[in-house]
Each structure stands twice: as structure tokens, then as C-alpha cells.
Design brief:
Blueprint: E1 32-33, E2 38-46, E3 50-57, E4 62-69, H1 73-91, E5 103-111, E6 114-122, H2 128-134, H3 142-162, E7 175-177, H4 208-234, E8 254-256, H5 282-285, H6 292-299, H7 301-304, H8 315-327, H9 343-348
Antiparallel strand pairs: 1-2, 2-3, 3-4, 4-6, 5-6, 7-8
Binding site for ATP: 67
Biased composition (Basic and acidic residues): 332-353
Enzyme class: transferase
């Protein structure tokens, strides 16, 4: 779960069922946190452990990303570990020049679903995954690739060499640009005034209707986009060829985020790590080797327009066979492996336990 303008799942909502005891805290625009210091502006995203909101810091008159953890004990424990890691990162980088997300504050918030640990992080922009989609899965210009790679490697070098920390889940979703692609989504560049109190007439009830309305609107937008793309692809009536998007003016500086899956110091790393689609061969044979994250960053389609090894069904066996095929020069597409065990992990981008 990251702190971007488009983090978390970009396709679906988290679901009403997760708003219960031990689950998410229901947030409404204008809600205040930590004694009124932070005011919720809009939701940025969500993940398995938390939701993230754009918030206005009334003390510093700036915008931040407010990450609100689920209240169940296992999620609270994960949050404490993440806070410990983020605190160490911030302490060693007072100038914020190491290309890793900065922790601003942390506190507890009590609501109807329990006590939630909250992290206040610097507000960042869109993920490399969103940039890839915006650029229609085409490779970037070399100067932009260099800028992105420079920032990622600075961040990894700081984590590995200076702190002895291994990220374990480096992927395009967890690399965020320092600003949004669309200026209208940036709370400062858009020129919109912050919301300092709950809008009049705002419902006092739950979140059910809000989810239903969002889902219906999202389906309608997808249907319109799908029809337009099909028309464009066949040259039908009203179908215009896709205009190449200009990336000039987009700041390509970026930061490494999301330390929920971090497992500890390099020497204590024992289990399989990384999301399946980005998993390095070294994970299977030398899991304590920090160079395995270099594979993850080379697997990113953001810079090159495609992955080194494309994900497929077959779970661990299928992924490893395709990776070995690529390494021994038998083709980047690899062999198809019968069976679909682990296919869901590939499609959903989940980590294998």
C-alpha cells in the first residue's frame, strides 16, 4: 500500500465487508485526526492492510498522505514494524535526498471498529504502474529512463548499504513519482483550497451507498473507454487513432515506498519474497542476496515497454522455468507449463507465502 495519488488497487474498491471490527476505519471527507491536526480531503488508495487518504496538515499548512491501518492485532503489529523501519529511514536521511518515502508523524486513532495505528507520510504522485498505463505501455525516452533508474538505485543503495534493509517487494506500484501526472490531481498545483470542515449535508451513515455509486460510475466509464478503443482499433465510425501522449513536463524523479512486506535485516531473510511476476531467480537459491532487487527493477515495464520474463500460469514452477529459459537464451517467452497452480498469484500480483 503506497501513498500516491493513485495507490492501492486502481480497479476495484476495498468492499464494505472490510469495514467491521478489526478492519478498516470508515473515513469521511472533513474528518479530523490527531487532535484536529489532520483533515481528510479525499481517498488516495487502499491495500490489504490499510487505506490511504490525502490529508491537510493544519500545523504545517501542507498536504500529507494519511495511512490508516486495520485495527486487528496482526495488522497493528505489522504497522509497528513498518513505523520502526520508516523512523530509521527518516533518521538517516534528514535532507530527504535518498529517494525513499519520508515518515512525518504517527499516532493512534480510536473508532467504532477499534484502535487504528496511523502513519503520516509525505504526499507523492502517481506510481510507475500508472505512468506505464498513461504512456500506453510504451517504453520511455532514454533520458527519462535514466532519471527513474537513478532515483531507484539511490534508494536501494541507501536501504542496503547504509541501513542493511531489504525492501522485498520492489515493483512499479511501489515506486512513486514525486508529483502527479495530472496537475488537476495535485492539491497544490490545482489551486484548490483545503477542506477544513465536513461539507454541509454530508451523510452521517455508513459507506454502503458511496461504494455502490462509485462502482456504477466506474463501470460506465470502462464501458465508454472500451467502446472507443474497439472503434479506434478497427477504424470504425468515430474511431480516431490513439494520439501519442506527451510526457514533457512530468517530473520523473521518484521514491521507493511501501514497507509493509519488509521482513527485517538482510542476514535474517529466509522466506520467499517479492511478488511472483517480479521474482528474481536468486530468491530460490540465495534469498539473502540484495542484488535480487535489481532484477525486480529491471522487470519493470515502465522503462522498457515490457518485462524480461512475462508472467504466466504455472505458479512457482512456471515462473522459474520461464526465467531459466530466458537466461539460457531459449527465448524471452519461455515454455508453457501445464497446470494453473499459482495463476491467481500472477494475475493479482500477490506474494506467494
Amino acid at each position: 500500500m503506497s501513498c500516491s495519488s493513485s495507490s492501492g488497487s486502481e480497479e476495484e474498491e476495498e468492499g464494505v465487508d472490510s469495514y467491521r471490527k478489526g478492519g478498516y476505519h470508515a473515513v469521511r471527507v472533513g474528518d479530523s485526526f490527531n487532535g484536529g491536526r489532520y483533515i481528510a480531503q479525499r481517498k488516495l488508495g487502499w491495500g490489504q492492510f490499510s487505506t490511504v487518504w490525502l490529508a491537510y496538515d493544519t500545523r504545517s499548512a501542507s498536504y500529507v498522505a494519511l495511512k490508516i491501518q486495520k485495527s486487528a492485532p496482526q495488522f497493528a503489529q505489522a504497522a509497528l514494524h513498518e513505523i520502526e523501519v520508516l523512523s530509521a529511514i527518516a533518521e538517516g536521511d534528514p535532507s530527504t535526498s535518498k529517494c525513499v518515502v519520508r515518515l512525518v508523524d504517527q499516532f493512534k486513532h480510536t473508532g467504532p471498529n477499534g484502535q487504528h495505528l496511523c502513519m503520516v507520510l509525505e504526499f507523492l504522485g502517481d506510481s510507475l504502474l500508472r505512468l506505464t498505463k498513461y504512456n500506453r505501455y510504451k517504453g520511455l525516452e532514454l533520458n527519462k529512463v535514466r532519471e527513474i533508474c537513478k532515483c531507484i538505485l539511490i534508494g536501494l543503495d541507501y536501504l542496503h548499504r547504509e541501513l542493511g534493509i531489504i525492501h522485498t517487494d520492489l515493483k512499479p506500484e511501489n515506486i512513486l513519482l514525486v508529483s502527479t501526472i495530472d496537475p488537476a490531481k495535485d492539491p497544490i498545483r490545482s489551486g484548490r483550497a483545503p477542506i477544513l470542515e465536513k461539507p454541509k449535508g454530508y451523510p452521517n451513515g455508513g459507506v454502503t451507498m458511496n461504494f455502490i455509486e462509485k462502482k456504477l460510475k466506474r463501470r460506465a466509464r470502462r464501458a465508454v473507454v472500451g467502446i472507443s478503443e474497439r472503434r479506434a482499433s478497427v477504424g470504425g465510425i468515430g474511431g480516431n487513432p490513439m494520439v501519442e501522449r506527451c510526457l514533457n513536463g512530468i517530473d520523473m524523479r521518484c521514491k521507493v515506498v511501501d514497507f509493509e512486506m519488509l521482513v527485517g535485516q538482510i542476514n535474517s531473510l529466509k522466506r520467499k519474497i517479492q511478488t511472483m511476476a517480479y521474482r528474481s531467480p536468486a530468491v530460490y537459491f540465495a534469498p539473502g542476496n540484495t542484488s535480487l532487487l535489481n532484477w525486480s527493477y529491471l522487470q519493470s515495464p515502465s522503462c522498457y515497454g515490457g518485462m524480461i520474463v512475462t508472467p504466466s500460469v504455472g505458479g512457482t514452477r512456471g515462473h522459474l522455468m520461464k526465467t531459466l529459459d530466458y537466461m539460457v537464451g531459449e527465448g524471452s517467452e519461455g515454455r508453457e507449463v501445464e497446470g494453473a497452480d499459482g495463476a491467481e498469484d500472477v494475475r493479482e500480483g500477490r506474494q506467494e507465502p
